[in-house]
Amino acid sequence: AQKITQTQPGMFVQEKEAVTLDCTYDTSDQSYGLFWYKQPSSGEMIFLIYQGSYDEQNATEGRYSLNFQKARKSANLVISASQLGDSAMYFCAMREGISRGSQGNLIFGKGTKLSVKP
Amino acid sequence: GAGVSQTPSNKVTEKGKYVELRCDPISGHTALYWYRQSLGQGPEFLIYFQGTGAADDSGLPNDRFFAVRPEGSVSTLKIQRTERGDSAVYLCATSSGGANEQFFGPGTRLTVL
């Protein structure tokens, strides 16, 4: 069974508007972390934002915020005021066992391709 | 400071050949990960090192794949008897103790003809 599901293969957004990229996850672990990475056409994975399962506040980093709904097991990324440079692939990822000090691997979704229109 | 570097950036080889892919981590990062990304997919975990030892190699697809990190810094991913299905981008990532974020290198694009 997929642990990370990103149901939007592609998304379009007008420059300066906000966009939400969906991510749902599946885990039986009570302690986990959720991550979003951006991958431009150059190929490098760029870390954007992190949310721990025990964090009570939704994470924010500049124009990025994470809409964390634990009961629904969703961790959607919201990008405000989209810019042309935001056009890229976006990956949601999870790591289990965070509070146990686990430094284990990330489990990635298939990604969403975001295109920002001028 | 310098980020994670990977060499070569591109590697073309013939079916059946042996290849080595190298990862230079961020200085001081104790955890090192190898992932494989096929076209149109997210990265898939291969192996994770904590220091010199492989803490988890459950993602290696078969015994043709092997990785080492002899001094706890540079790591080499080795693929024997390459197959066309091994063609992918191989990504290396590292993190420091206690940190959650993984920093990725630019990847090595492997093409097996």
Total beta-strand segments of chain A: 12
How widely separated are the two ends of chain A? 38 Å
Arithmetic mean pLDDT of chain A: 93
Oligomer: heterodimer
Largest sheet of chain A: 6 strands, mixed
Instruction: Please bin the fraction of helical residues of chain A.
Output: under 10%
What Rg of chain B, in angstroms, do the CA atoms define? 13 Å
Outline of the structure:
The complex is a heterodimer of chains A (118) and B (113). Chain A is mainly beta and 118 residues long.
SSE blueprint:
The complex is a heterodimer of chains A (118) and B (113).
Chain A: E1 4-5, E2 10-14, E3 19-21, E4 24-25, E5 32-39, E6 46-52, E7 60-61, E8 64-69, E9 74-79, E10 88-96, E11 107-108, E12 112-117
Parallel strand pairs in A: 2-12
Antiparallel strand pairs in A: 1-4, 3-9, 5-6, 5-10, 7-8, 8-9, 10-11, 10-12
Chain B: E1 5-7, E2 10-13, E3 19-24, E4 31-37, E5 44-50, E6 53-56, E7 65-68, E8 75-79, E9 88-95, E10 103-104, E11 108-112
Parallel strand pairs in B: 2-11
Antiparallel strand pairs in B: 1-3, 3-8, 4-5, 4-9, 5-6, 7-8, 9-10, 9-11
What does this structure look like?
The complex is a heterodimer of chains A (118) and B (113). Chain A is mainly beta. Chain A has strands spanning 4-5, 10-14, 19-21, 24-25, 32-39, 46-52, 60-61, 64-69, 74-79, 88-96, 107-108, 112-117. In chain A, strands 2, 5, 6, 10, 11 and 12 form a six-stranded mixed beta sheet that branches. A four-stranded antiparallel beta sheet of chain A has the order 3-9-8-7, with no helix packed on it. In chain A, strands 1-4 form a two-stranded antiparallel ribbon. Chain A is globular, with a radius of gyration of 14 Å. The termini of chain A are far apart. The model of chain A has no long low-confidence stretch (mean pLDDT 93). By secondary structure, chain B is an all-beta fold. Chain B is 0% helix and 49% strand. Chain B has no helices and eleven strands. Chain B has strands at 5-7, 10-13, 19-24, 31-37, 44-50, 53-56, 65-68, 75-79, 88-95, 103-104, 108-112. In chain B, the strands form two sheets. In chain B, strands 2, 4, 5, 6, 9, 10 and 11 form a seven-stranded mixed beta sheet that branches. In chain B, a hairpin with a 6-residue loop joins strand 7 and strand 8 (75-79). The mean pLDDT of chain B is 94. The A-B interface holds A 4, 33, 35, 37, 42-47, 50, 52, 91, 93, 95, 98, 101, 103-111 and B 31, 33, 35, 40-45, 48, 50, 55-56, 59, 89, 91, 93, 95, 97-98, 100-107, 109.
